[in-house]
Amino acid sequence: MQVGYNYQFGPNFLVGVEADIAAASIKSDSSSHFDLPSWGNSTRPLDIGVETKVDWFGTIRGRLGFTADNLLFYGTGGAAYGNVKTSYNINYDDGSNVLSGSSSDTRWGWAAGAGFEYGITKNITLKAEYLYVDLGSSDVAGETVIRDTGWRYIEASSADVDTNFHTIKAGLNYKF
């Protein structure tokens, strides 16, 4: 869903503002494997997995464009927001869980892109748009200490997860 306002000035220039919100099913996961030093110069395999999901997102953007007959070419940019869910699991190779956790919050960031809009009639337009959305990064592990059965341990002060993605939108608009 989107709502906006455009103002045309001069014969071929347009400035506007729009806000939108959309359901999403964006998911990314990654995993790492390393050997944790253990008692007696041996190692113990450790697996770390992180998953991030975006269930919905929206933007509030300005746009500046050039018109030629019924066609508008424009650039756009502004604020972005969305629900970001992040979870992590740290396990030994035998499946025993060392540490896990999750977070879910509405995050703010930015968006930028470009598109075109074609006027089918005076009130109906067809639109296609590319957007890059960056909702920032989150610290999922915080201050974490993982101890092995021996004297050695590792300490992770942070584990940052970036949330950014590309979108392509198409739509049919009605102008009042």
Task: Please give a structural write-up.
This protein is mainly β and 176 residues long. It has a single domain (2-174), classed as Porin (Beta Barrel), CATH 2.40.160. 0% of the residues lie in helices and 81% in strands. The strands form two sheets. It has a seven-stranded antiparallel β-sheet with strand order 1-2-3-4-5-6-9, with no helix packed on it. The chain has a two-stranded antiparallel sheet with strand order 7-8. The chain is elongated, with a radius of gyration of 23 Å.
Could you name the CATH class? Mainly Beta
Query: How many helical stretches?
Result: 0
* Count of discrete domains: 1
Distance between the termini: 15 Å
Q: Hey, roughly how much beta strand do the residues contain?
A: over 45%
What summary fits the major beta sheet? 7 strands, antiparallel
Described by the principal axes of the CA atoms, the overall outline is: elongated
The mean pLDDT is: 84
Helix content: under 10%
Strand element count: 9
* SS class: mainly beta
The parts where pLDDT drops under 50 for at least 5 residues are none
> What is the gyration radius calculated from CA atoms?
23 Å
Strand order of the largest sheet: 1-2-3-4-5-6-9
